Amino acid sequence: MTASTSSTPEPAALPARPGAYPDGRTPLADAVLAVARRDIATFHALPLSHGRSIRDSHMRETYEALFGVAQLAADVSYSGTMLDSFFRPRGPLREAQRLAARSFGADATFFLSAGTSTANRVALTALTQPGSRVLADRSCHQSVHFALNSLGVEVAYAPMQRCCDGCPRTYADLPRLLEMFRAAAAEGRPFDTVVLSAVSYDGVRYDLPTVLTELASVHPTVSVLVDEAWGAAHRFHPRLRPLTALHAVETLRAADPRFALNVAVTHSAHKSMSALRQGSYLHLIGDGEAQERTAQALFQHHTTSPSWPVLASLDLARLQAETEGEALLGRSLGLASTLRVELATDPRLSAYRPLGPDGHLTDAAQLVSDDPTRVLVDISALGITAADFRRMLFDEYALYVARESGDAVLFHIHIGVDEATLLRLLDALRTIQRTYRSASAALATGTSEHFIIAYPPGIPITVPGEKLCERTLSQIDELRSSGCEIYTLRNPTVSARELAVQAAVTGSVPTTVDHLPARASTSESRTSTSESRPVECRTEQLAGAAAAVSAAGTTAATVTAAATAVVTS
């Protein structure tokens, strides 16, 4: 073999159990902190380090507000003997990687500061050769597809399947994947590498012990990449650990010392652990040659300017997971369970329908199960789109939900979600239901009790007593799609039946001046009166109300909530 371009991490001595580490060391984080505390002037690169290039700049305050003085000091550009070499680690980085390998149960662990997309490319470069045959899970991340497309390999994809009609999640058809793997081996053309996406974005976990056992029994020298990006923290809780890739390998090794698979596992540490964004682990199970190929692939694909704060955060995240991970994940599991129970039992949350873990992914033959830290919720009963719902949570309640799938949104109850955060979410969900259940009721076919107004231009589409038909509802959908906001204001004094009778007899529509929320939706206060008088519905009043609402920056949800408050007061 030719001389190594880079050195491999020192093999890790595996502990008896995860978390059994009395020393509590974070060698890389300590080393980065030590150089950050020194006022070192650099003649190399990174003028921003220690804030030197902005000390007299009018932009200094903005920089420090965004990044903080400590972050600017820690973002350094030292390598080699000054701190450590990223590609030939001999000092604190090497020790930090050794501790991480011991913690996760790997033969070697590499730290990356360029994200798991890069980690997947590194792993596939190491595990494949031009012309080799690869069987890939079709649901894998785009980085896997891009890498395979450029490596000169022959790729076959296992198909995907949908959970069921009531749940929009998709995942690999693992029985079919194993069938394809067995058939190829029987034909004398076995797959050299298999790629699996073990924990999906929307909460599907693979039965890796069963899958890896089958792969090893059919073709003992196959290489496997497990993209476990969303499951890094799962290693550190007994309920979640059994389905993790590295634990599955440990179990297989214990049962059969001849186990010889080369297995690479990638973790987006920042997705489930306390690591900075783009912090990623690449774990390897395999012989020295596999580790050397991985180290050389890292040299080919990773930036030569790694972020030392990101790398240091991987060291810190590992120690926190060892010492506090089980308790933190236990809290996450409890909060996720609480959210499901509240959605299923609280009448004020009846518009939300949790999808799983009960009733979905319960067929063991499919080799998949629910990730209990994720709660997928159907919101279709609200009468608004999932995109609008996400935007409302972000804009009005400072709550961010990243994933939508059809009429469902996904809540990831990670270790950064605490009891207070969950209470904020539940309060927001109740408020939104009060608002939009009323609005949804207004958009039912039949005789309407509401003013339904599109703004702009602020002209009623219907007034109380008029019929709502499918054609009108289609018109409302078109207006909403074109960017109009739809306001629904209920007449609180007269039932739909009475309105229909009065409209048929007199041709007029009774309403109350106090019902129009032009002032109620602004910062001005108003004393309501129980006295009402019939008036003709005036378009300019409704337009003025909507304009005042728009000028005040108030949303349709707030308008409807105000109208509902009038009704119930």
Automatic annotation (TrEMBL):
GO terms, molecular function:
catalytic activity
Which coenzymes or cofactors are required? pyridoxal 5'-phosphate
Annotated region Disordered: where?
1-22, 512-535
Recorded coiled-coil stretches? none
> Among its keywords, does the record have Transcription?
no
Q: Does the keyword Protease apply?
A: no
Regions of biased composition (Low complexity) lie at 518-532
Concerning InterPro entries, the annotation shows: Orn/Lys/Arg_deCO2ase_major_dom (IPR000310), Orn_Lys_Arg_decarboxylase-I (IPR052357), PyrdxlP-dep_Trfase (IPR015424), PyrdxlP-dep_Trfase_major (IPR015421)
Q: Which UniProt keywords apply?
A: Pyridoxal phosphate
Segments forming domain Orn/Lys/Arg decarboxylases family 1 pyridoxal-P attachment site:
26-358
The stretch of residues making up the signal peptide is none
Source domain of life = Bacteria
Cross-referenced PANTHER family? ARGININE DECARBOXYLASE
Task: State what protein this is by name.
Answer: Arginine decarboxylase
Origin species: Streptomyces vietnamensis
